[in-house]
Design goal:
By secondary structure, the chain is mainly α. The protein has one domain. 48% of the residues lie in helices and 0% in strands. It is built from two helices and no strands. It is elongated.
Length: 71
């Protein structure tokens, strides 16, 4: 009987942890009704010219070799 009580108490505690974890602030107001082909999130902000230039530079640096190999 003692082990049964312990097992059920641990089970209830685990259940409580899972229920409380579902109430986290970042889990609230998220989209749960998905429609194929329809973006329901917040629209992105347009990048200004400086941000685009920095992004192009970073892409070039991550590209590896910048000149074709060979003669």
């Amino acid at each position: 009987m003692k082990w049964g009580k312990l097992f059920s108490s641990v089970g209830y505690c685990c259940l409580l942890v899972f229920l409380v974890a579902g109430c986290r602030l970042e889990e609230q107001d998220r989209i749960t009704n998905y429609e194929p082909g329809v973006y329901m999130g917040v629209p992105d902000q347009a990048l200004n010219s400086s941000q685009r230039r920095n992004l192009r530079y970073r892409v070039r640096m991550q590209g590896g070799v910048t000149k074709p190999a060979g003669p």
